[in-house]
Amino acid sequence: MSRTVYLNGEWLDEADAKISIFDRGYTFADAIYEVTAVVGGKLIDYHGHAARLQRSLGELGMKCPYEGEDLLAIHREIVARNNIEEGMIYLQISRGVDDRDFIMPDKPVPTFSMFTQTKKVLENPYAKSGISVISLPDWRWERRDIKTVQLLYPTWAKTQAHQQGADDAWLIEEGLVTEASSATAHIVKKDGTLVTRDLSHVILPGITRASTLDLAREAGIKVEERPFTLDEAKQAAEAFNTSATNFVLPVVNIDGEQIGDGTPGPITRKLREIYVKSRLATAI
Ligand code: PDD
């Protein structure tokens, strides 16, 4: 079924939405994006995603053509026009169309696009089975805190994982886990402490990460925000990813080594359950 998408202020059939080959998003990956989950036709963690969008733009000296209630209204309208019950909204803003020039234009006119994708986010079979990951070097640029569309390496890493019979890759830098190819990586120590990398330029400040850590603390789970090694991850009792589209997703195998008993652990399952419950209650 053909979708209705949003491009530079217009609602269009997806086949009619065209972007110039001179767009800097296309020639230089000079663009940022956001992914927001939709459940029951409502937006999950919208305010976190909207705030991170503004931050990404600010770090790159770009501006969003829509803000506040206007931006929220476009999100709501795209869900309604496409009748999305469960899935996600993809939003991208590039520095717009210009002759190919490495120097960024002084007065860019951004290209703003949005589309929806349906996906069963609640009934995810991997939430029950858990996923396997392989470790790969983190060869991305060092400003991973900005959500740019430079996704060649993450797509390459995830493809490598699939070719090796795994589901995803955890990326390693100087022996330390940074994050998964498109999710935040977490472990649970044998004493029940949740460990996740502290925020810095080397990881994306995950919106699901922030909510999950808040909920974990509220549930009395001890949280340590610090780097952890691949070896520590392999020795952990549990491991999991968080992201907008997969929520809390158990990781049960790293590099062929089983984590815990090889099934989703109790803390991971509990966090998924409380994450889903609280996000459904706060969805807008
Ligand atoms: N990716 N780290 C990376 C590198 C990511 O690409 C993502 C999300 C996350 C988790 O962030 P959040 O919880 O805000 O979704 C962490 C999205 C889902 C994607 O690219 O599809």
Unreliable stretches? none
Average predicted local confidence, pLDDT: 97
Oligomer: single chain
Q: Rg, please?
A: 19 Å
How much helicity do the residues have? 25-40%
| Number of DSSP strand runs | 15
Query: Which ligands does the model contain, each kind named once?
Result: N-(5'-phosphopyridoxyl)-D-alanine
Structural class: alpha+beta
Question: What's the structural blueprint in terms of helices and strands?
Answer:
Blueprint: E1 4-7, E2 10-13, H1 24-28, E3 31-39, E4 42-43, H2 46-59, H3 68-81, E5 86-94, E6 111-118, H4 125-129, E7 131-137, H5 152-163, E8 168-173, E9 176-180, E10 184-188, E11 194-196, H6 207-218, E12 223-225, H7 230-235, E13 238-243, E14 247-254, E15 257-258, H8 266-282
Parallel strand pairs: 7-8, 7-14, 11-12
Antiparallel strand pairs: 1-2, 1-6, 3-4, 3-5, 5-6, 8-9, 10-11, 10-13, 13-14, 14-15
How does this structure look, described?
This protein has 284 residues and is of the alpha+beta class. The protein is 30% helix and 29% strand. The strands form two sheets. Strands 7, 8, 9, 10, 11, 12, 13, 14 and 15 form a nine-stranded mixed β-sheet that branches. It has a six-stranded antiparallel β-sheet with strand order 2-1-6-5-3-4. Strand 13 and strand 14 form a beta hairpin. The longest helix is centred in the C-terminal third of the chain and has 17 residues, at 266-282. It is globular and about 55 Å long. The mean pLDDT is 97. It binds N-(5'-phosphopyridoxyl)-D-alanine.
